């Protein structure tokens, strides 16, 4: 009986560890895309700010 409980406990711990590793790995894989995405948003924001600044100074 105790061996069954131990087996279930180790199994759940292993599953949790595997899930954690999977989450970290997917985060690591999606990191470049997230960085690229934020850089694009930042670029667009900077361009908008720059054009607003230019139109403000020209008018």
UniProtKB/TrEMBL annotation:
Phylogenetic placement of the source organism: Eukaryota, Viridiplantae, Streptophyta, Embryophyta, Tracheophyta
Keyword terms: Membrane, Transmembrane, Transmembrane helix
Protein's name in the database: Uncharacterized protein
Residue intervals passing through the bilayer: 15-37
Organism: Rhizophora mucronata
């Amino acid at each position: 009986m105790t061996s069954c409980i131990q087996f279930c406990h180790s199994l759940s711990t292993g599953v949790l560890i595997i899930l954690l590793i999977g989450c970290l790995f997917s985060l690591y894989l999606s990191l470049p895309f997230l960085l690229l995405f934020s850089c694009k948003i930042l670029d667009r924001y900077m361009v908008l700010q720059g054009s607003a600044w230019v139109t403000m100074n020209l008018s």
